[in-house]
From TrEMBL:
Residues 11-194 form the Ketoreductase domain. It comes from the Bacteria. InterPro entries: KR_dom, NAD(P)-bd_dom_sf, Sc_DH/Rdtase_CS, SDR_fam, Sec_Metab_Biosynth_SDR. Gene3D superfamilies: NAD(P)-binding Rossmann-like Domain (3.40.50.720). Belongs to the short-chain dehydrogenases/reductases (SDR) family. The keyword Transmembrane does not apply. Transmembrane segments: none annotated. Keywords: NADP, Oxidoreductase. The keyword Oxidoreductase applies. PROSITE patterns: ADH_SHORT (PS00061). It comes from Amycolatopsis acididurans. This is SDR family oxidoreductase.
Length: 258
């Protein structure tokens, strides 16, 4: 029963930004459950290390690419298309953040964050829809999972104007794509994490301290790797096949109870 509901063995899964942090946690969850996982980040060395680490549990392949550029997205889509005849699950996780005061916030910060978080996800979907279509059936739709953020719902403490705006954009873009792709048996959902101790969050925790960072979190802990892997596996499995256009907060109640 568990396998029937939540099994993802044999699925072909792409996790962008899978070399560390939340992406690595999600990639490891899928590899351990028997999926064939592709991961991507800019740093070829970090990609190779993640591939090696994950390969002890199953099948993992790293493809370095800069998804903030159209060339990078094209080369990743071409590489996957050359190796696979279908893609079951696309997880747009790679993301960038930029913090700066209102007075000094640069245009380059907006470009970097939007090029990756919003345009990057949209154009990777555009490039990979043909391969997702080949996996899609009424009983088992192909899945797109975009990683949003609770910062797309509420106003964060720090001055990350482009980031919070980009995550709100990812949430709305996902609902729009869900409507467009439902007739093609492709679901589109968002996981909106709370605070996960990754490179991205490191500066905030160092600056404000763990206690202050966790103060607004009802469940009083950080997001853990299993929280992220579990939510993504649910959305990618039979159990999640009738869910589309949803934004699932995995945040210890931060966005949902305050
Ligand atoms: N950490 C949190 O508390 C938190 C909360 C809510 C949402 N999120 C979201 O969760 C996602 C993952 O964040 P994280 O905390 O795991 O961040 P992270 O530790 O900084 O990891 C980001 C990943 O994305 C890759 N990446 C960055 N720029 C890229 C580019 N241009 N092209 C391809 N890959 C790129 C990085 O590898 P390279 O540097 O080698 O490219 C890395 O693998 C992001 O979308 C983030 O916004 C995080």
């Amino acid at each position: 029963m568990l396998e029937e509901l939540f099994g993802v063995a044999g699925k072909v899964v792409l996790v962008t930004g899978g070399s560390r942090g939340i992406g690595l946690a999600i990639a490891e969850g899928f590899v351990r459950c028997g999926a064939r996982v592709y991961l991507c980040s800019r740093d070829a060395e970090a990609c190779a290390l993640a591939e090696k680490e994950l390969s002890q549990y199953g099948e993992a392949h790293a493809i370095p690419a800069d998804l903030g550029t159209s060339e990078g997205r094209r080369s990743l889509a071409d590489a996957i298309t050359a190796r696979e005849d279908r893609l079951d699950v696309l997880i747009n996780n790679a993301g960038a953040i930029w913090a700066e005061t209102l007075a000094d916030y640069p245009e380059s910060g907006w470009d970097k964050v939007f090029d990756l978080n919003v345009k990057g996800s949209f154009f990777l979907v555009q490039a990979l829809v043909p391969l997702l279509r080949k996996a899609a059936t009424a009983h088992d739709p192909a899945r797109i999972i975009n990683i949003g953020s609770i910062d797309g719902f509420h106003v964060p403490h720090h001055e990350t104007y482009a980031y919070s705006s980009s995550k709100a954009a990812v949430h709305q873009l996902s609902r729009h794509l869900a409507a467009q792709l439902a007739p093609e048996k492709i679901t589109v959902n968002v996981i909106a994490p709370g605070m996960f101790q990754s490179k991205m969050l490191k500066g905030t925790v160092e600056r404000r301290g763990e206690e202050a960072v966790l103060a607004p979190v009802p469940l009083k802990r950080f997001v853990e790797p299993a929280d992220m892997a579990g939510a993504a596996i649910y959305l990618a499995s039979h159990a999640g096949s009738y869910v589309t256009g949803a934004i699932l907060p995995v945040d210890g109640g931060t966005a949902t109870t305050l």
